[in-house]
Specification:
Strand content of chain A: under 5%
Number of strands of chain A: 0
CATH class of the largest domain in chain B: Mainly Alpha
Distance between the termini of chain B: 50 Å
Number of helices of chain B: 8
Structural class of chain B: mainly alpha
Shape of chain A: rod-shaped
Number of domains of chain B: 2
Largest interface: A-B, 39 and 44 residues
Number of helices of chain A: 4
Distance between the termini of chain A: 50 Å
Oligomer: heterodimer
Shape of chain B: elongated
């Protein structure tokens, strides 16, 4: 990743993966990727990284934490246990 | 927002002291606020404190909410500020590693170029990978972490994330990009290590 073109690509990678670059820039990037193995690996692994964190399970609020929040706010009478 | 009630109606009811509306607000936004707090504070006890403080402060100052952003964005902002107040309390015995990072410095040149994305799918579906990823997100440098969480994990738009953090949309985009690169590097190190015979 020492070439100027590779460094330029690095700046554009997120907009590229998010589909936010113009058609011209997109074509330039894809041309570069067809010739540069390092950048291709970079793009593929970054894309996979995004896929992995977008598809991982999200932490939930534990029921006891939710119950204590209602208590703290004097809303206990409105607390309804969630079906497990 | 629930189909049955608009955000404007909910706000009006909370302003009028309607406790059922306060409870509805918790049901709508509590989990998101808790997740942000958990990922910022890195432990459940502090996350719970931050969440409680967030809703207490929100209900106390609901009359000051002008509606320039959405209610959820405003709650995220309160939670972020509450978390930062706690994290930045001076302690003579700890030095946050985040403080030592040049967070606005130019992008880090990637070090690890192992092509791990074509590993068998089963290698990605383990609880160990998921735990490593969650831990890595919590270890993102602070400024990158909160922008990353709001934009990528909580699904706020770039502008909503910027509003919640009081920074520009461009700054959100840069932090998001740096956060992604940082996580990619961590995952690359992880998968390289997994390939080394034990």
């Amino acid at each position: 990743m020492g070439h100027d073109e590779c460094r330029h690509l690095l700046d554009e990678l997120s907009p590229y993966l998010d589909g936010e670059v113009s058609e011209t820039v997109c074509a330039e990037i894809e041309q570069h990727l067809s010739d540069c193995e390092n950048c291709r690996v970079m793009v593929d692994t970054l894309r996979k990284t995004v896929y992995l964190y977008r598809n991982m399970p999200q932490p939930e609020m534990p029921e006891q934490v939710r119950e204590r929040l209602y208590k703290k706010l004097d809303l206990t009478e409105f607390f309804l246990p969630q079906a497990s | 927002m629930s189909d049955a009630i608009t955000e404007e109606d909910l706000l009006e009811r909370i302003r009028n002291g309607d406790q059922a509306a306060c409870a509805l607000c918790i049901e709508l936004y509590g989990t998101q606020v808790y997740r942000l707090a958990l990922r910022l504070m890195k432990n459940e006890a502090d996350a719970e404190d931050v969440m409680q403080e967030t809703f207490l402060n929100a209900y106390k100052s609901i009359d000051k909410f002008e509606g320039r952003s959405g209610l959820s964005t405003w709650l995220y902002r309160i939670a972020y500020n509450a978390a930062m107040m706690r994290l930045r309390r001076p302690s003579p015995y700890t030095l946050s590693i985040d403080e030592t990072l040049q967070q606005d410095s130019p992008l880090t040149v990637p070090k690890q170029l192992f092509d791990w994305c074509c590993l068998p799918e089963k290698d990605f579906e383990t609880s160990e990978v998921r735990e490593f990823l969650e831990e890595s997100i919590q270890e993102l440098p602070e400024k990158l972490r909160v922008a990353f969480i709001l934009r990528e994990l909580e699904g706020l738009s770039t502008q909503e994330s910027a509003d919640a953090l009081g920074i520009s949309a461009d700054a959100v985009k840069k932090r998001l990009h740096r956060g992604r690169l940082w996580l990619r590097e961590r995952l690359s190190d992880y998968f390289v290590e997994q390939q080394i015979p034990g």
